[in-house]
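> agent: user asked for a holo structure of the chain below bound to flavin mononucleotide. Plan: (1) validate sequence alphabet, (2) canonicalize SMILES, (3) run complex prediction with ligand conditioning, (4) return tokens. Step 1... ok. Step 2... ok. Step 3 dispatched.
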Amino acid sequence: MSKTRNPSLQSRIIVANQEDMLQSRRNFLKGMAFGAAAIIVAPVLSGMSAYAAEGGDKVLILYFSHSGNTRRLAEQIHGRVGGDMVELKTVTPYPQDYDTVVDMARKEQRSNARPQIATEISNLDEYGTVFIGFPNWWGTMPMPFFTFLEKYNLGERNVVPFCTHGGSRLGRSESDLKKLCPQARILKGFEVRGSQVSGAQKEVDAWLKDLGFPVGNTRRF
Ligand SMILES: Cc1cc2nc3c(=O)[nH]c(=O)nc-3n(C[C@H](O)[C@H](O)[C@H](O)COP(=O)(O)O)c2cc1C
């Protein structure tokens, strides 16, 4: 602080200096708040690539669907995040008759079967995030996903479950996924009743946004 003989000027200088100090304190606090906000917001703004520890930036949406509900949900997700959409198919297709497939799926689960799969993914390395979509079958994923996830090691990728169901939501699927992909980062899953898929786009968007995907109205390829 400079010295002066004029007392009123002296007090103005003191007030000015106090204001400077207050201002720099405010700036310092603003800086701190901005820094903290940046740390919290950064992973969200930078999107999913910030999370991907293994694989490239591309998204794979792998889904199984028997009667079409999960396929429609997969299409809604694909319309927002782009990437590649692949249907998980079995060598022997499941029967169309509802009661027959219900019985068959129960037997497969009780015997811990591994139905042979026809789908092959040769470019898994390109994907940093793998969406896994399925109908809830007897409380968890249909057994072909058990075959797939034992055959393909997803490593430390992001794994994002989504499911359609008749009331049991995701059931045990998330804990089964954790066992099948122990190193993967299993992100928050999405579930919707099969009968409500067609009206689910808004909820799908909110979920994807929450996960950090830049959700727009346009496809991103
Ligand atoms: C074999 C089989 C087992 C099912 N088990 C369940 C279940 O345990 N809990 C449930 O909420 N819904 C169950 N459902 C209903 C389906 O999850 C639901 O209809 C789903 O939306 C079907 O999807 P999709 O059209 O993609 O095949 C089952 C359906 C089938 C065919």
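> agent: step 4 complete. Summary for user: Residues 65-70, 101-102, 105, 135-139, 164-168, 194 surround flavin mononucleotide (CB under 6 Å). The chain has six helices and six strands.
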